[in-house]
Amino acid sequence: MADSSSPGHTKQLSEQQMVALQSAERKLFWRVLVLNMALMFVNYIDRTNLSFASVQLNRDIGLDKATYGLGAGLFFATYAGMQVPANMAMTKIGGPIWLGTIALCWGITAACFAAIRDIPEFLALRCLLGFFEAGALPGMWSYLTHFYSKQRITIPLGYLMGSLIVSQALGAPLAAGLMALDGHGGLRGWQWLFMVEGEDLDHGLVDR
Residue 182 — left, alpha, or beta (φ > 0 → left; ψ -120 to 50 → alpha)? Predict the structure, then answer.
C-alpha cells in the first residue's frame, strides 16, 4: 500500500476506496499478520523456555547459578550485537525468506538444547540462539511496514505485540505440561520441553 504524507489521508478517500482499503487489510490480517503473530508467539516461547527447564537441567548437567547467568547474558550479547546486521540482511534477502530462515534456525537451535551434556555446549547454544533470534522482532516490524502505511500501522503492531503477551500467559502452562512428560521415552522433562517447543512449533510455522 502506498504511504501518504498527510496524517488524515484516509479521510480524503472516497467511500469506495475506503471499502477497498478495509478489504485489503482484512486479507492482510489472515495472510500476513496472523503468521507474524504466531512467529512472535513462538519466538518468545523459545527465548524463555530455559527458565522453566532450569530446575531439572541445572541439576542434570551440573550447571551452577553463575554459569546459568552467564548463559543468559551471552544470549542477549549476541542478540543485541546482531540486531542491525540481521535487518540489513533482510533488506537484501526479503522478508518472507529471511524470517522463515531464521525461524527454522532458531527452532533447530532451541531443539538442540535437548541434547546438551555439558556447560560448553550450553553456552555455545545460548550464543547461537541469540544470534538467530536477533532479527525476528525488528524484522517483523519492518516487514509489516511494507503492507501498512504509517498512519495505519499502529493496530497491526498492537496485534503483533499482543501475541507476545499471550505467549507470556500460555508459556508457563505449556511448559508445565511438557515437563510432566519426565521419564517418557527415556527423556527428561526439560528435553521434551526443548524438543517440542523448539522443533515442532517452529517447523509448523515455517511449513506454512
Answer: beta
Percent of all residues in the chain with a pLDDT value above 90, rounded to a whole number: 33
CA distance 64 to 58: 7
pLDDT for 28 equals: 87
By the 8 A CB rule, do 69 and 123 touch? no
Looking at every residue in the chain, the average pLDDT score rounds to: 85
pLDDT for 7-31, tens place per residue?
445 557 777 777 887 788 888 888 8
What are the DSSP calls for 95-138, one per residue? HHHHHHHHHHHHHHHHHHGGG--SHHHHHHHHHHHHHHHTTHHH
- Residue 120 buriedness (CB in 10 A; 0-12 / 13-18 / 19+): exposed
Using CA atoms, how far residue 49 sits from 10, 92, 155, in Å, is 43, 31, 28
Can you list the alpha helix ranges (DSSP code H) found in the chain? 15-28, 34-61, 65-81, 83-93, 95-112, 119-133, 136-144, 154-179, 189-194, 201-207
**CB contact at 8 A, 203 and 107:** yes
DSSP 3-state of 195: helix
- The CA–CA distances, whole Å, from 199 to 103, 111, 113, 151, 195 equal 10, 5, 11, 37, 6
Reported residue count of the chain is 208
How far is it, in rounded angstroms, from Cα 76 to Cα 84? 14
